[in-house]
Design brief:
The chain has a 5-stranded antiparallel sheet with strand order 1-2-8-4-5, with helices on one face. It is globular. The longest helix has 26 residues. Strand 4 and strand 5 form a beta hairpin. Helix content is 25%, strand content 33%. The protein contains 4 helices and 15 strands.
């Protein structure tokens, strides 16, 4: 659990925000720093998602949002899952832009950042696809942690062991699952082995809605 909490801290550190029932405000510069890491990594499958959630961990209901500087105001784009679609913009960083969100119905929003796949896989995913994701997740968490954590506190660094597949409903083990696959409720964790068959593929009874890192507790 310490490593999982550290993983969250690695991603959330240096992002200060203010949240009330009527307004959520956060500085753009922390997002820019992380988007810069993503840009340098040139990842093919891994992404870093910025979400607003309520105190139950559910998507925050957003009424409206904007990106504000001293001289300009721009509309904030977001999805139905309250994922913020932020531009990678050096000018916004230099102008000390603020992200301002007005939630619906008195929701008190908080920020959740999540490493995740940047593509969809339907109801089937191959071991090769999961291995590619595992490799990029592992590299990304190292880059986000920075030199200080990697060198002086490497023993505390979260260890990515594979991927976690998330579904909308309770899911059963896929046909042909071995000891590397464990499904509980609406999630399946899959440990990526050092060697595997390029043709190995897992098919589920419903579509995969999200793929995130499996971090060892």
């Amino acid at each position: 659990m310490i490593k999982k909490n550290l993983a969250a801290g690695v991603v959330l550190s240096a992002l200060s925000f203010c949240a009330t029932a009527s307004e959520f405000v956060v500085s753009y510069d922390g997002f820019y720093d992380r988007l810069k890491v993503m840009s340098k990594g040139n990842y093919a499958t891994a992404d870093l998602g910025f979400y607003l959630v309520n105190q139950k961990g559910e998507p925050c209901n957003i009424e409206s949002g904007s990106i504000i500087t001293k001289t300009n105001e721009y509309p904030l784009n977001y999805t139905s899952q309250s994922k913020l679609l932020l531009p990678f913009d050096e000018t916004l960083d230099k102008d000390k832009a603020l992200i301002v969100v007005h939630p619906k119905g008195g929701d008190q929003c908080q920020l959740k950042m999540q490493m995740e796949a940047n593509q969809t896989y339907g109801d089937s995913i191959s071991m090769k696809q999961m291995a590619d994701l595992y490799s990029e997740f592992d590299d990304l968490i190292g880059r986000l942690s920075g030199f200080f954590m990697r060198t002086l506190f490497s023993f505390m660094m979260p260890e990515v062991k594979g991927v976690t597949l998330i579904f909308d409903q309770v899911v059963a083990d896929p046909i042909g699952a071995d000891e590397s696959v464990k499904c509980t409720e609406n999630r399946c964790t899959i440990v990526v082995p050092e060697s595997y068959s390029q043709n190995q593929r897992f098919t589920f009874s419903q579509p995969i809605t999200q793929v995130i890192p499996h971090i060892e507790k």
